[in-house]
Specification:
single chain, 67 residues
């Protein structure tokens, strides 16, 4: 009885993407994605702060006249 290797050849596994994407390509995409998410988050926080300050402040009319 002899033992023979079972499975797909390495060239086929690389062709169908079994091992996943190469690290160099993933780093650039991940960096751009993180930068985009951070930018959108910062803009949303700034807009929320600005809208909150604008709508929640009580407008002062100056001194009240007391008799």
């Amino acid at each position: 009885m002899t033992v023979s290797a079972m499975g797909y050849p390495s060239w086929w596994l690389e062709e169908v993407g079994y091992f996943g994407p190469k690290a160099a390509n993933g780093v650039a995409v991940t960096g751009a994605l993180v930068l985009g998410v951070v930018t959108v988050t910062a803009l949303a926080v700034g807009l929320g702060f600005w809208l909150g300050r604008r709508t929640s402040t009580v407008k002062s009319k100056g001194y009240a006249f007391i008799k």
